[in-house]
From TrEMBL:
Name the UniProt record assigns to this protein: FAD-dependent oxidoreductase
Keywords: FAD, Flavoprotein, Oxidoreductase, Signal
Record InterPro entries: FAD-dep_OxRdtase_2_FAD-bd (IPR003953), FAD-oxidoreductase_2 (IPR050315), FAD/NAD-bd_sf (IPR036188), Succ_DH/fumarate_Rdtase_cat_sf (IPR027477)
Cofactor: FAD
BP GO annotations: steroid metabolic process
Domain of life of the organism encoding this protein: Bacteria
Signal peptide annotation: 1-20
Amino acid sequence: MKRRLLLQSGLMCLPLSALARGNLPQEYSDVIVVGGGSGGLTAALSCREYGLKVTLLEKMAFLGGDTLHSGGYFNAVTDEAVKRGEDSVELFKQQILKSAAGYADEDVVSVYAASCGAALEWLKSQGMKFLPVPHLVYGGLWGRSYKPLQPSGTGYVQVLSNACLRKGVDMRISAAVTGLVTDDETGRVVGVRVTYRGEQRLLFANRGVVLASGGFGANRQMLAQSSPLFAEMGSDSHPGATGEMIYIASSVGAHLRNMEFIECVPGGIEESSEQVRLDYDPTVVMLVDENGNRFVEETSPRSEIFSAYRSKNIRRCFTIADSDAVERIGLARRKSLYRGLYSGRSWRCETLEALAEALQVNPDHLIASAAELQERGVLNKPPYWAVRVFFKIHTTLGGVAIDTKARVLGAHRAISGLYACGQMIGNLHGKNRLGGNGINSAVCFGRIAAESILKDS
Ligand SMILES: Cc1cc2nc3c(=O)[nH]c(=O)nc-3n(C[C@H](O)[C@H](O)[C@H](O)COP(=O)(O)OP(=O)(O)OC[C@H]3O[C@@H](n4cnc5c(N)ncnc54)[C@H](O)[C@@H]3O)c2cc1C
């Protein structure tokens, strides 16, 4: 099946001897990075900081990938949080492993949990600015998410791409990688085939190729093959999240993991790109069904919330919050909520009875549900807000398996010359990704890939 998909799309592993006989234009670098999101920009910049000649290839006409329109939250265990006794690397690691439900590799998770603090400091040293106090984000389980001052994920892309430009990374947009080039004798990955400005070229990398090409949430065919349930659902992914590099990597022997795990979260409605949401901080919101009943603990992992929604066959679902919670939502998102009042996508009422009437849910059930949270100090300050919840594909969790050095694993050992970071990795989050554990995996393993390239060659 995989091979058929590759052949249909003309994407393949290409042995060097066959290519050497062709007439394609050829170029040379030390390192080639595939993808211009946070992972690719980090890997490229880090390699450049080690003095290597780097070419970054991004197939879209702009950099950023999913990173650009993400929430930007970055989970990290900082030294300060450890000193204050609020957090530890071990706790972070155990939470990731528990949420992965046996489908992640413990050694890789250990390195990941331990590296996020240093990755956050590195981002700051590049010019990223974060709010000083960490948040608990939806599905995050712990208050260790650092929010950039720049809106959404834009800060990562601006800061890292500016640094790449300043330091001389050769960055190319509209440059789609369509194959990996391998050495006939050793099997080492030595370059890529790319379509750049309408022309096919071969780019050779004598130190390594880093795959930072994200997930496949925008590829209906891959979604249908991986997990048919999700094939028709709306998706949050950017249009370039088509996952071809995962199959191209498998054509050189990369071991794919967890391709069937797809993460769904409450999102906006399909016809609108504007997100009208209330569930940014799960500790201060309530999720109810069409009868006004709570159907899940709001702070549960994302996979559990989606499972409860599906298994209970819920037809209409709402998130409800009070004015205190709404005041704490960032300005841009709050504006969307206010706009929603006029477009019929959000509701605001002085009493829970009035809200129940507006939502056409049972008022007694809604009041009883709210009382459960009011005991915990939540939902006490009118006016009350509500938005309708639609579940959408948020992230694909499958991809290539890596080792602790970000080297892509084949059936028995690492594939020489091939590295991966970010959403491309399939053995990190297992069944469920903790909220705030996306960009950090791109930055951590982008940096680790660069270190490994330096040491391996
Ligand atoms: C709506 C939304 C909100 C999110 N919020 C958060 C959050 O708050 N915190 C968090 O940690 N995570 C969040 N995530 C997840 C996070 O965005 C991703 O995990 C992270 O951005 C992945 O980074 P990446 O560099 O691996 O991939 P991306 O940022 O997606 O970059 C991959 C790039 O590779 C390019 N590419 C793909 N194939 C090729 C090819 N063949 N040739 C050349 N280029 C190619 C793509 O076009 C893309 O630009 C969110 C995701 C979504 C969708």
